[in-house]
Amino acid sequence: MTRVPIRKGWCPGLYAPMQTHDGWLVRVTPDFVGLTAGQFRFLIDYAMRHGNGSMTLTLRGNLQLRGLDEASARAFASRAVMHRLGLADPAQEARRRILFTSPLAGLDPDCAPDTLALARDIQCVLQNLPAYWRAPEKFSLAIDGGGLVPVGALRADLALRCENGEWRLYEGAHCHAPCREDLIQSVMAALLRMTEAAGTGRALHRAAPFTGHVPPLLGAFLPGCFGARAVLGTLDARHCEILADSGATLRLTPWRGLVLDRVIATPDLITDPDDYRLDVVACPGQARCAQGLAFTQRDALSLAPDLGGRKLHVSGCAKSCASHDMHDVTLVASERGYDLIWQGKASDTPIETGLGVEDVRRRLRQT
């Protein structure tokens, strides 16, 4: 009998820590312009003093600390607010974290120049909605100014995108271009429609998927911008002390990466576009998740040298938390071993089941 994974249906937030297999998890949503060195130092110290020294980057551009006890997890919010990493009002903080914007807004001259200003204005309107209003769980609103990170690269339920100098609003399959004076009003009207739909049990339809290839953002790619990726989205807090000591500011990208304002290297940051570890994505797996049925990250890194440029996704269960995209090779763990899917998603029908890591390695070397 196959074990069906439990879907919690909500995401952790500043005031909503989550108990996981390796302790409690807390999540912080940085400001649009990133983390200061002081804020990053606070997170490093908290991870080392109260957690397991591990920090993870999410696909929403958030940062998580893991392995805390319940008391430390509950105390985190007030400490974070003191460092301007969140709002003191839980309801307002929950609204703030639904909104994200182009990771290079204000840095990339080809990103729409009013991207940050629009995001700030919409954030202000969100905070002034009636006290009873709350967004649907896992809802996201993107302000996408394009540029080096192409328009459409940010995935969201509702998206405001700048195309050829004109802002367009994507609401599910629908798109329209309100005049500049009506932009914010149109966004809020669409947001309230989607909230109403969620309240009646109707499914939310995400804005059109991304249309362009996302550049790696590694090494020096713009003046004053140095990009890096965390190996499997995980940072060792001890190694991050180098970043904090440098005084660098950091922006988190929705691809588990960092944009720094200076050149810095640490052992668990990838800056070489040819590094084969960029070809793998994996959830925390059995080591950190009660739903995980395999040591996914260990297995993914073990298989990485045999990929030959192909992209690998390793999921510890059928939920596929780390990626819902298509990959060259997808492995989904079960009680019998790994299910193997070629050129597909974790939800697709596997061509083989019950494989061990060495079985998969042989298949990779044969194809």
TrEMBL record:
<keyword id="KW-0349">Heme</keyword>
<dbReference type="InterPro" id="IPR036136">
    <property type="entry name" value="Nit/Sulf_reduc_fer-like_dom_sf"/>
</dbReference>
<dbReference type="InterPro" id="IPR005117">
    <property type="entry name" value="NiRdtase/SiRdtase_haem-b_fer"/>
</dbReference>
<dbReference type="InterPro" id="IPR045854">
    <property type="entry name" value="NO2/SO3_Rdtase_4Fe4S_sf"/>
</dbReference>
<keyword id="KW-0479">Metal-binding</keyword>
<keyword id="KW-0560">Oxidoreductase</keyword>
<dbReference type="Pfam" id="PF03460">
    <property type="entry name" value="NIR_SIR_ferr"/>
</dbReference>
<dbReference type="InterPro" id="IPR051329">
    <property type="entry name" value="NIR_SIR_4Fe-4S"/>
</dbReference>
<keyword id="KW-0004">4Fe-4S</keyword>
<protein>
    <submittedName>
        <fullName>Precorrin-3B synthase</fullName>
    </submittedName>
</protein>
<keyword id="KW-0411">Iron-sulfur</keyword>
<dbReference type="InterPro" id="IPR006066">
    <property type="entry name" value="NO2/SO3_Rdtase_FeS/sirohaem_BS"/>
</dbReference>
<keyword id="KW-0408">Iron</keyword>
<feature type="domain" description="Nitrite/Sulfite reductase ferredoxin-like">
    <location>
        <begin position="21"/>
        <end position="75"/>
    </location>
</feature>
